[in-house]
Amino acid sequence: MRKEVNKFKYWKKLASHYKKMKKVHMRELFEKDENRAEKYTIKLDSMLLDYSKNRIDDKTMQYLTGLARECKLDAKIEDMFEGKRINLTENRPVLHTALRNRANTPVYVDGKNVMPEINEVLAKMRSFSEAVRLGKFKGHTGKKLTNIVNIGIGGSDLGPVMAVEALRKYWAKDINCYFISNIDGTACAEVLNRIDPETTLFIVASKTFTTIETLTNARTCRKWLVDALGEHAVAKHFAALSTNVKEVEKFGINPENMFEFWDFVGGRYSMWSAIGLSIAIAIGMDNFERMLDGAYAMDVHFRTADFEHNIPVILGLLGIWYNNFFNLRNYAVVPYDEYLKYVPAYLQQLEMESNGKFVSNHDEYVKYATAPVLFGGAGTNVQHSFFQLLHQGTTVVPCDFIIPAISHNEIGEHHEILMANVLAQGEALMRGKTVKEAAEELAKAGKSKEEVKFLKKYKSFPGNRPSNTIVFKKIDPYALGMLIAMYEHKVFVQGVIWDIDSFDQMGVELGKQMALSILPELQGNAYSMGHDSSTAGLIKHIKRLRK
Ligand code: F6P
Question: Rounded to two decimals, what is the model's pTM?
Answer without folding.
Answer: 0.97
